[in-house]
Write a structure and sequence with these properties.
The protein is α+β, with helices and mostly antiparallel strands. Strand 2 and strand 3 form a beta hairpin. The radius of gyration is 22 Å and the shape is globular. The protein starts with a helix and ends with a helix.
Length: 406
C-alpha cells in the first residue's frame, strides 16, 4: 500500500514537472517571437497575458506606450477596447437578466418606444435621400440585439444605404465625441429602418449601443455608473472607464500609425480619413457624453483579464458571484443557430465569437486588441496593441501566438 501511494506521488510530481517544462517552452517561444517583432519593427508595442489553469504564467509588456516620445509600455497602460466593449455590455445585460429586471425575450419597444413601429429598408435614392420601406413583422427583442440578429446595422462601412440615412440624421458610427447623449442617439436610431426581419440574418451593428441604453432604463442609472458599481468596482478594475479623468489620462496608450516611406511606426493625435468616426483624441477630449456599449470602453490588459477570469470561472471572481453560470453559458455559446456567419465553422455568442462546439470563444477589438478563452485546453490568451494601417496584421500575430499554445 505504501509503495502504491509512493508511486502515485512520484507519478504526479513527474507529470507536474513535465507540464511545467512544456509551459516554460511555450512562454519562451512567445517571448522570443514578440521581442523579435519589436526589434524588427513589425509592431511598436504589445501587452500580453497568458493564464493557464487559472494561474497567470505570462504577464509582460513589450515596446512603447508612445514610440515618438520613447516612453515604455507597462501593464497598467490603458487601451481603447473598441469592439471588446461588446463583451462587457453583454455581461451588464445578463446581470440584469439574472436579477429578473430584463428578459431575453422582452421586446425592445418596452424600453425604447420608437422601436414599436420598426420598418425594413427596401431602397433609397442617394440624391434625394427618399427611401422606400415596409413594416417589419417580427418584434425586436433583447436576444436579437445580443446576437446581432436585429437587423440594426452600423453605418457606411457596413451598408452604404443605411450609412446615407445615418449621416442625414447625425448618427456617427464608432466613437462619438459630439455633444450627444446615449438616449438622444438611440431615439434617433429607432426612427431609421433596419435591414431585415429580426432573427433572419446576422448583421454587425449598433446593437450593443442600444443595449447600453436599455441597461440605463432597466437599472435607473447612467450606463457608466452602472458598470462602475456592478462590474468594475467588484472586479477591482481601476483602470477602466468610458472617459479618462486627470488621474487616468496619462495612462492612455497612443495610437500608432505606419509610415510607408520610412517603414516605421509613429504616434499621432491627428485622425486620418476613415470610413467611420474614430477621433484619435478619444477618450480624453470632446463632450464625453456619449456612452457606446459597442466600442466606447477603455481598459488596461490587467483589468480586462479579470473579466475573462470571471467568465472562465462560471461567473465567480475571488469568491464574488458576478454572473450566474447560466448567463456565462449564454455568453460563451453560439446564439445564432444555422444563420450564415462571417467566419466558417463559427458562431456568435453574446458579445464574442464562438468555435469548436462552444469550447472556444474569442474576439477582436478595432483590429488591434484580442482575447481567446480555450476551455478545452484551459487557457486564456490576451494581446493588446494600438496600431492602425500597418502592413503587418496584428490578428495574424495573435493567432500565431495562439498556435504556439496548441
Amino acid at each position: 500500500m505504501k509503495k502504491t501511494l509512493l508511486s502515485l506521488a512520484l507519478y504526479f510530481i513527474i507529470i507536474g514537472i513535465v507540464c511545467s517544462q512544456e509551459s516554460e517552452k511555450k512562454i519562451a517561444k512567445i517571448d522570443s517571437l514578440l521581442n523579435n517583432y519589436i526589434e524588427t519593427g513589425v509592431i511598436p508595442h504589445a501587452n500580453i497575458i497568458l493564464v493557464q489553469n487559472n494561474n497567470p504564467i505570462l504577464e509582460k509588456s513589450y515596446g512603447y506606450k508612445d514610440i515618438t516620445s520613447n516612453e515604455g509600455l507597462n501593464l497598467d497602460h490603458i487601451f481603447r477596447l473598441s469592439s471588446l466593449s461588446k463583451l462587457i455590455t453583454s455581461i451588464a445585460v445578463m446581470q440584469l437578466v439574472d436579477q429578473g429586471k430584463i428578459n431575453l425575450n422582452d421586446p425592445v419597444e418596452n424600453y425604447i418606444a420608437g422601436f414599436k413601429n420598426t420598418e425594413i429598408l427596401d431602397s433609397i435614392n442617394p440624391e434625394t435621400l427618399d427611401y422606400i420601406s415596409h413594416p417589419a413583422n417580427n418584434k425586436l427583442t433583447i436576444h436579437h440585439l445580443l446576437s446581432n440578429t436585429s437587423g440594426i446595422a452600423y453605418g457606411a462601412a457596413m451598408n452604404p444605404n443605411i450609412g446615407i440615412l445615418y449621416n442625414k440624421n447625425g448618427i456617427d458610427m464608432g466613437y462619438d465625441t459630439s455633444n450627444i447623449s446615449l438616449e438622444e442617439k438611440m431615439l434617433k436610431l429607432a426612427k431609421i429602418p433596419i435591414l431585415h426581419e429580426a432573427g433572419e440574418a446576422w448583421t454587425y451593428g449598433f446593437n450593443y449601443d442600444v443595449l447600453g441604453y436599455i441597461v440605463e432604463k432597466a437599472s435607473g442609472i447612467k450606463y457608466d455608473e452602472y458598470l462602475q458599481k456592478e462590474l468594475f468596482e467588484p472586479l477591482g478594475m481601476n483602470n477602466t472607464a468610458f472617459y479618462l479623468n486627470s488621474d487616468l489620462k496619462d495612462n492612455l496608450t497612443s495610437i500608432h500609425l505606419y509610415d510607408t516611406d520610412s517603414k516605421t511606426f509613429y504616434s499621432t493625435t491627428e485622425t486620418p480619413q476613415l470610413p467611420y468616426r474614430m477621433p484619435f483624441n478619444y477618450p480624453i477630449e470632446g463632450s464625453k457624453r456619449y456612452l457606446s456599449g459597442g466600442v466606447g470602453i477603455n481598459s488596461s490588459i490587467l483589468d480586462f483579464s479579470k473579466i475573462l477570469e470571471m467568465l472562465y470561472n462560471n461567473g465567480t471572481y475571488k469568491e464574488k458571484q458576478i454572473l450566474s453560470s447560466e448567463a456565462v453559458q449564454r455568453i460563451s455559446s453560439g446564439q445564432i443557430g444555422e444563420l450564415p456567419f462571417m467566419i466558417p465553422n463559427a458562431s456568435w455568442g453574446y458579445g464574442n465569437i464562438v468555435e469548436k462546439d462552444n469550447t472556444i470563444y474569442w474576439s477582436e477589438g478595432g483590429g488591434f486588441n484580442y482575447f481567446k478563452v480555450n476551455k478545452e485546453k484551459e487557457y486564456i490568451l490576451i494581446l493588446f496593441t494600438q496600431t492602425m494601417f500597418s502592413p503587418y496584421s496584428t490578428m495574424k500575430i495573435f493567432f500565431q501566438l495562439d498556435g504556439l499554445l496548441q
